[in-house]
């Protein structure tokens, strides 16, 4: 997948490598599951206060943030 924006493309490529490495480390084949674990982990590292929130609130915030990023990437892809 390319977005046409070099910085986004590089980030997507690095993320794919992280997912591959983590999948090997965990012994999982479900890349979406690995991505979800990576996303939640990075979110908690970025916002330590999130670990004190309820699980539902943490999941909702993480999901909302990921949707914003995905919408932005779709906008870039369709504009190009």
Helix content: over 70%
State the order of secondary-structure elements, H for helix, E for strand. HHH
* Overall 3D shape: globular
Could you give a short account of the major beta sheet? none
The helix/strand class is mainly alpha
What's the rounded overall pLDDT mean? Answer: 76
- Runs in which pLDDT lies below 50 for 5 or more consecutive residues are none
Put simply, the count of helices is 3
Key traits:
mainly alpha, 3 helices
Please, could you describe this protein's structure?
With 80 residues, the protein is an all-alpha fold. It has one domain. The protein is 78% helix and 0% strand. Helix 1 (6-26) packs across helix 2 (31-46). The longest helix is centred in the last third of the chain and has 25 residues, at 55-79. The two termini are 13 Å apart.
């Amino acid at each position: 997948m390319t977005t046409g924006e070099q910085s986004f493309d590089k980030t997507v490529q690095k993320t794919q490598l992280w997912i591959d490495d983590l999948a090997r480390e965990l012994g999982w084949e479900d890349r979406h599951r690995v991505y979800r674990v990576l996303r939640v982990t990075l979110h908690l590292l970025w916002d330590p206060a999130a670990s004190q929130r309820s699980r539902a609130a943490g999941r909702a915030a993480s999901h909302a943030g990921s949707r914003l990023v995905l919408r932005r990437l779709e906008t870039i892809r369709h504009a190009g």
